[in-house]
Input
Amino acid sequence: MGMIAGNNATLQVGAQSDFSTAVAPTVQVEFVSESLDEKHNLITPDQITGKRSVDRLDEAGIKVEGGVELVANPANIGILLAAAFGAEADPAAVDSSAVYDHVFTPMSAAAASSLPKLTMVVDRIQAVKGYVGCKINRMSLSAGVQDYLKAGFDFIGRNEATDALESLSSGEKRPFMFTDGNLQFNDTDYDEVLSLSVDFVNNLENDLYVLNGSNYMVEIEPQRREITAEVEALYSSDIETLRESYYKGGTKCSLEVTFTSTEEVLTGKYYTLTVNMPNCYITGNPVNVSGPDRIRTRISLTATEQNGESPITVTLRDGQATKHIA
Output
């Protein structure tokens, strides 16, 4: 039967130029789990035939759905951030060095705008499958006490096909950890944080089939983006002030979280990942006593776009001089 175990699986990713055409992967991504699958919608005419069951099923639509979970590190997150947001600025050198800031923002609507599409190649030992035309519908980042920064990506795509791996290797960079983090509300540090999460949803079109003689979807694009965050923290005077002024007061605030690795890109310059949401509203901040333990609270936030500022900006600092998706 052989040893067909997930420990030996491989995930590789490449950026496509055409929605229906697979490409060779360019990046190998360390991952925790994946659930990519080709979905077939079989329909029946529901006609009365005098038979004991339905008399036929016909193919009506084919698409890919599923996700990838990973521990975020500087080598595996860049191409996925570029694919999730759609807009990546030209890399900016830090202090004229070979260290670069990659700035990702949600792409703007325009006739020529299109969210990047990926070929996701998964080696499951028994077979290697490529998932073509995959676009990221949802991205989540989360971290908690005594843990790594986790990232999740949910995809909608076109089709599955037999594929092959390229000769690539993993970046093997140190993952970002919860203890690497610094969280600020309105440029002020809040250090009694227990966990945090950020969700970015593209609200991709789905089941977009047209009268073109094919059971495959045509290319799908984002609709209005939804961007939320949640912070769990110990209840304190600072949290009470935040609650009174920004939750009950209905005033917007800013949230910024930066993870700074202990691993250097160059001497004295470290890998970092920063999430900035400059115009947030606190939509929930309950404070309750649930027992004899320390009182905690959860702060729920929703990002908005105001005054031309991006509702969310993610910056990855690494040693790559080119865009993660050109």
Q: What stands out?
A: The two ends are 43 Å apart (CA to CA). The helical segments are 78-85, 237-247. Residues 237-247 form the longest helix (11 residues).
